Amino acid sequence: QTVAVTSPNGGEVWLPGSAHDITWNSLSVVMARVEYRRTPADPWQFLAEVEGGLGRYTWSVPYDATAEARIQVSDAWDQAPADSSNLAFTIALPLIAESPASLGFGSHPIGGAALGVVTLSNPGTASLAVSSLSTGSGAFQVGRSSLTLAPGASDTVGVTFLPGQSIAYADQLTIESDGYNAPTWLVPLYGSGMDTVAI
Questions:
Q1: 17: number of CA atoms within 13 Å, CB side?
Q2: pTM for the whole thing?
Q3: N or C terminus: fewer CB in 10 A for the chain?
């Protein structure tokens, strides 16, 4: 008996939700067991058992952001022989993350300005497009309106607090992107204005 995975065999970039054929060559394998592993640290996940001679299984790619995916095909009876992708393939998915979770400016004189910074990052495996950065009030102003992050990259966004009254302010930075995990991301913003006392 022999089995050899032919696709994906390393280097492919597949989009989540798309249908792709997992293919293999085999000899004397009556039923083939097809499995998927997201990373080397993860266990193999069962996908299907199909006739070994078909040499093909159409797979709906999961929404897993990874550059370390592999497929394994084995004899369904005793998992021997078995073969897996020679090299890893990528499931391309943009993700978004931010730090800090909220931005507090404390108290600042009316008419003064204070700058805060939010770091946005893309822990995914496809380019992340941030299409809009906005706040709801004029007391908080965003330094940029859009940006693009490559996989694994991060960038900063400046937020300026401009209190106009001696009151507490609460707003949110609204981030619109194609990040699969959070197409709309909200970062709470806090600050208060204070009167200056002439001496």
A1: 2
A2: 0.82
A3: C
